[in-house]
Design goal:
Blueprint: H1 10-18, E1 24-27, E2 34-36, E3 51-54, E4 64-66, E5 72-81, E6 86-96, E7 102-110, H2 117-140, H3 155-180, H4 191-210
Antiparallel strand pairs: 1-7, 2-3, 4-5, 5-6, 6-7
Length: about 240
Amino acid sequence: MVADGQYAKKMFMDAVSNESDAFVTKLGSNANLLMPFKGTHQKRRGARQRWDGKVDFVDFAGWATVSGAADERVWTRVVCGPHFERHFRVVVIQRLNSKGAVMAHVVLCSTATTLPTEQIRALYSARFQLEFVFRDAKQYGGLTIGQLRSRRDPGNHWNASFFSLSLARVALVLEDAGRTGRPASRLVRFIEDVKRRAFNVLFASRILANLGLSQRFAELQQYSSRPLDLDVKAA
């Protein structure tokens, strides 16, 4: 599961862990993290040393370096979050200026300490793209509008909303591929276009049916004015 920093809460992490799922999120740039002690314990009285100090995001001695872009440095290590009462695989991404000085840093983490660094970055980067799916489902798929007979089973409504959104995306991709003659590599138009055009088709077919002219519906596709694309932004 992937979520933004607003969900970096102990209660939420515990709930995800109870489902045996890994959780990837973003921590604050000054997060309170402790480095586990991995050295040789001194022979003395008392409990063994547990921590090797607090993460200050300046000194990365003992951290593993991961390859990244030319304008960044990437560090990773398993650390402990005392507030969350658990260990994390933390990925620190430092942003560099043209002179190589650190301008800022981002702290990503995963509750699965064995998750590769590249996968943590890829999962969190995909989070922003997933937000567009929920946005479109709310605006055009009726995700938050529905009537249910039971509060315990909204899954069918959610599945229908996301499924209709997926069909709309497929329709856009296939239409673009048919127009350009090559496979579409990305979605370049709006889901609203599909909904608007579907309404135009339904409205036009109803009018022609009431006038007894249903057999002439195909002619609407041939007009240069493209009446079925009325009010479509990316027609």
